[in-house]
Every structure is written in C-alpha cells, then in structure tokens.
Amino acid sequence: MAEVMDYDEVLERFDPVLGLEVHVELNTNTKMFCGCANVFGGEPNTHVCPVCLGMPGALPAVNGKAVESAMRIGLALNCEIAEWCRFARKNYFYPDMPKNFQTSQYDEPIAFNGYLDVELDDGSTYRVDIERAHMEEDTGKSLHVGGATGRIHGADYSLLDYNRAGVPLIEIVTKPLVGTGARAPEVARAYVAALRDLLRGLDVSDVRMDQGSLRCDANVSLMPKGATEFGTRTETKNVNSLRSVERAVRYEMTRHAAVLASGGTIRQETRHFDESTATTRAGRAKETAEDYRYFPEPDLVPIAPSREWVEELRASLPEPPWVRRKHLQEDWGLTDLELRDLVNADALELVAATVDAGAKPDDARSWWVSYLSQQAKTLNQELAELPITPAQVARVAALVADGSLTNKLARAVVDGVLAGEGEPDEVVEKRGLKVVSDDSALTAAIDEALAAQPDVAEKIRSGKVAAAGAIVGAVMKATKGQADAKRVRELIIERCG
C-alpha cells in the first residue's frame, strides 16, 4: 500500500485542486447513433447492430432526443448553448470500443461556460464552474474472468459485451476547483450529489451510480503553499457512489502529499478506486488530447439548434430540486431533519406523488420512509423499484383514514400489493381484511371474552378501566386483528357499566 500523509499535515503544506468529469447515460429509447434499444442489462450482445458494432459501411444518424436532453442539461447548468457544433472522432484502441474510435465532441461542445451552486453540509454554498457538457457514446463492457481482482491483470480470459456500446452519454466537465481546502472531498461529494438530483429532476437519466448510468472521474492535484502553478494530476476513473467520490479525493490528496514530501514526482495517470480498502491503484499513463488524434466526424452533419428551440427548452425546465425541496418542506411543515431523512431515503418524489394522489403528507411520509423502506431492504431493491405505486399507497392511506382498515391490516394490504395480488381494494376483498365494524359482532366477541375472564370483567366493573386491555386483546385475537381496537374498548366499558 502506498505511503500517505496525515490529512491535517496535507492541508498545512498543500492546496488541493480538483477537476470532476461526470458521465451521464441518457434514458432515450434508442442508442446515440443507431436504432438499437437503450436498456440496461439483457443477454450479452443482443442489443447491437452494424452501426454500434462498427461494421464497414455502416453509417450513423444522430438521436434527436439525445440532443434535446443535452441542451436541457446545459441550460440547467447555466451554460451557453452552441449555435453550431459538431462531432469528432476520438481515436484509440481498446477491446470494448468496437470501432477503435469513439464518436464524441472535442473543441466544439454543445454546452459550455456554466456553473452549479452546491450547498455543503453546514448550509454554505460553493460555486462549481462548468467548463463544458458534450455529447458522446458509451463503450462496451469487458468481463475479465479468473484472477483475484476482476481486472485484466491475472485474468484467465476476457469476455466482451457490446450492448452498452453506443449508449448516449453526456460528459460534464468542471473547470479547476480551487480554494476548497480541507473541504475538497466534501465539495466533490456535494457536487456529484447535486448534479445527480438535478439530472433526475430533468428526467434525462435514471442516474443509477450502482448501474453505471452516472459515473465520476475525479482529478486531483496538489500545489505547495504559495505556489501559483497547478501540480500534476491523477484521474481516478469511474467512481460509482457518492461516498466513494469523497473517499477517493481524500485518499489521493494524502497519497500525492506523501510522494511530493519525499522528493518524488506525481505520474499523470488514471487510477482505480478500491471500495474495500478506500485506496486507489495505478491504471495507465494518461493520454493527452494530441494522443487521441481528434478529427471531425465525416459521417455526421453539424448540429445548429435554433435560438427559438433553445428558449423553448429553457422555458420548459422544472424548478431545481433544492428549490422544490424548500417548497415541499414549507407546504408539509417538515423539520430540516425530516426533510434530510426523506432525501437520504430517495423518498421525496415518491411522497410528493402520493400526496398528489390524495394522501396527507404525514401519512405518505410514514408509509414510504418506514414500512416500505423496510420492505425495499428486505427485497434488496431500490425504494422506487418496489411494485407499488404512489396512487396505491394513497388508496391504502385512505382506507385507514375512513376506518376500513387498521394500521396492521393496512400493512397486510400493502404486502398483498407487493406480492402482485392486485389493487388495494382487490387485496382487501381477496384476503378478507376489512375492519369488523358491526357493533353486534363485536359485542358478541366481547361478551365471550368477558365470560372467559370473569376476574378481569370484575376489575373493569369496579372502576379499574386499564384492565380492559386484556379483553381488547382477546377480541382482537378472535377477530384476527380486524376489529377497531378503539371501538372495542368503548364497547367493553359500556358492557361493564
């Protein structure tokens, strides 16, 4: 393991400089330059065609929806939208790039010169300046079989899946982030988190970091205190969680500092982050732009979006997620902690949709943050992937509110919906879950319980009302939990005078 320097000492001797490159897979129906389905997974090499496989003579065509999504992203990041731009070929050889070049944008990106204001943990704001957001295509995926690391070194053989090749990507590149000091790792995490929220709100990507639809390359360099020139940077590739972005930046700062303090030099290279050890290891020497031998893509026409189209898209942008959160917090009367819990659980929009479907905010929040979050963990699924809709949750909440269900019965109804048994009302009917509200039926069960426990009945009659709990329990058991406990208690006291 590489030598590292204590973090506090790093900050005493050096100033960090960051650069973050975030790759976002768009959720278009088809790929960037062909008609193949843009879906995650599938049998290897089944979502491919001559275009995305780079077959001779196959000609690409630009995905118009991807261009629109790119402009929406650029506008949301306060970027200028190019009046004219074009694609370029980025030439390099790697087995998961079937054409031996990547169709990308080089010196003429579709969006440039923007910014994103990022809120940090203490409520302060850091402005991240955006250099560019450009369009390109994703590569395929390599699977290295054998060996201990899952990487090519030490593997017995490699397999290639080109389903992902040609998937539309937007690469968002920041300008150098300076002046972050001790908060550099926090700024990196907060920026990627804010960007993820923004992109989800635009509905241009599912931003699933665990599935690679949002990936961050973290560039780190250090300048000795008082220096004016940036140090040599390293690029930690494809970091796939917010926590890992923070840890990778922190580790690289401590590693760089140890190398520099010992009189060594930093090698400009790509590195890979190891989740288990929170360390990075060397990849390959980092190419420069000249190494890629960019030249204009001859098979695609330039893109020249009209100013009218740009303004139409600008007018259609939703309010930023952090503004929306403030509005919802005020409308629902949430504390900062309650709001944070909703956001951390990825439940905010689910709760909002449930409220829109008629539920009270407290009821909607309770269902998604407590019971349904537990079910998601049990099923090892994302909360939004559970097979239940906000409208169905709102219906269950309504059945509880009108007395048709108790909370316990409502959970059984939700279980039925999750099991695929139909809509909430169908589950209630099939499972016979409706609350027993007929006083005559409840009175019969109460009389039976009182007769079975005469000593308890006598205590209640003598004024020890707390003893009624035992009879309530017996009635609930007799009715299989389908009685209204509050009504049962009222009837018990009536029966006992």
Automatic annotation (TrEMBL):
The gene is gatB. Keywords: ATP-binding, Ligase, Nucleotide-binding, Protein biosynthesis, Transferase. Belongs to the GatB/GatE family. GatB subfamily. Residues 349-496 form the Asn/Gln amidotransferase domain. This is Aspartyl/glutamyl-tRNA(Asn/Gln) amidotransferase subunit B. Heterotrimer of A, B and C subunits. Pfam families: GatB_N, GatB_Yqey. Gene3D superfamilies: 1.10.10.410. Its EC number is 6.3.5.-. One of its GO terms (molecular function) is ATP binding. The lineage of its organism: Bacteria, Bacillati, Actinomycetota, Actinomycetes, Pseudonocardiales. GO terms for biological process: glutaminyl-tRNAGln biosynthesis via transamidation; translation. It catalyses: L-glutamyl-tRNA(Gln) + L-glutamine + ATP + H2O = L-glutaminyl-tRNA(Gln) + L-glutamate + ADP + phosphate + H(+); L-aspartyl-tRNA(Asn) + L-glutamine + ATP + H2O = L-asparaginyl-tRNA(Asn) + L-glutamate + ADP + phosphate + 2 H(+). PANTHER family: GLUTAMYL-TRNA GLN AMIDOTRANSFERASE SUBUNIT B MITOCHONDRIAL AND PROKARYOTIC PET112-RELATED, GLUTAMYL-TRNA(GLN) AMIDOTRANSFERASE SUBUNIT B, MITOCHONDRIAL. Allows the formation of correctly charged Asn-tRNA(Asn) or Gln-tRNA(Gln) through the transamidation of misacylated Asp-tRNA(Asn) or Glu-tRNA(Gln) in organisms which lack either or both of asparaginyl-tRNA or glutaminyl-tRNA synthetases. The reaction takes place in the presence of glutamine and ATP through an activated phospho-Asp-tRNA(Asn) or phospho-Glu-tRNA(Gln).
